[in-house]
Request: fold
Amino acid sequence: MATYKGINGYAVQTVASDPSPGDPGQVFYNTTAKTFEYTISQNGAWATGGNLPAYKRMAAGAGTQTAALLAGGGEPVSNASFEYDGTTWTAGGNLGTAREGLAGCGTQTVAVVFGSRTPTAGVLTEEYDGTTWTAGGNLGTGRGALASAGTQTTALGIGGETGPARTTATEEYNGTSWTAGGNLATATAMLAGAGLQTSALAFGGQINPGDQVGTTEEYDGTSWTAGGSLNTARASLGGCGTQTVALAAGGGTYTEEYNGTSWTNVASMSVGKNWPILVGTQTSALCAGGEGPTATEEFTGGLQNVNKTISFS
Amino acid sequence: MAYKYCTAENWGKGFIEIGESSRFDISGLPGNVWRIPANNKDANLWVFKVAGSFKTKSEAQAIVDAEVAKAQAAYDALPEDQKNNSLNRRPENIVLE
Reply:
């Protein structure tokens, strides 16, 4: 019978405690834990965060992993907002208008949300100061299930549904009013966005009912051009980060990272989510809400070598 | 790979930590059912930490089936116009591995 030493030229190391992860492929036996382990190179990992107090799908999100905002969403359609401090969600100010399928951007205390899918394809914009929502300028094209990028005073509304139809419309917000930007190449709804008003990313989505795409488009403040495609075509996902350092998660448990050229699969979420919010950066993100459970998950990115326990069957 | 199943209530922060999801795969299923690798000490320790209750594959399948059936019944009860709404999809059956 072949032995490990016979194949590799050296025996499995025996250690009393886990060594720092070394080279991927290394195998060792931990005599204290009585486990065989091996080292792999893994990109990112998810952990659970504090559960949302209520079920929320197609809400708007803003902020970071430890200072996030979730506003609106359904179902039932709600005007509630919630603030996350890295551990717990607490109630924020109520939106002036209850809605689902809106988009948002900015920070926890300086945010903007716009559009809606339910009750109607809407134009309403509201701005948050950490306590209260006040009305902003209306979108030129009423729509929901759209994507967003930017900040409260330099926001971008991307694509979405104007009813049964998808739209290519992109609009730019200056803190007061919306003006038309360059159109997406393909009318898409339930897509995700990342980045800033002048360097944004739009990816995934649905171009017809049931027709999900993995296409990515990059915006330079004027026009959209094609980027690398997601590895898994899907809609109802979330996006965050920047145009060249972005993260996509949701539309299932899939998580992918973008480097400005191509998407790479990284660690999957434990619980699949459709229509969640995803906020933060590629290396420190928060995924919350969405269809299904109220679970929140926190992503920590970065390539690292980790020791995994070997399962025997 | 062989799997084990347990039920446990996800209490939120700390239920699954980075150090755990890095060392073994944890998948959440309907009905608070969690799938973990079989014969994996770290996974077993996690089940102990979360006060999980081990289930046989058929017991776990029954729990998942019941949750999916509930969701399917809720979808079937929707008015036709809402069924045609692209947000609402009939939940699919899940077959445990």
Q: What stands out?
A: Chain A has two domains: 4-43+303-309, 44-302. Chain A has a mean pLDDT of 92. Chain A touches chain B at residues 33-35, 42, 45-51, 57-58, 87-88, 101, 117, 190, 206, 209-210, 253, 267-268, 270-272, 275, 293, 295-296, 300, 306-313 (CB under 8 Å).
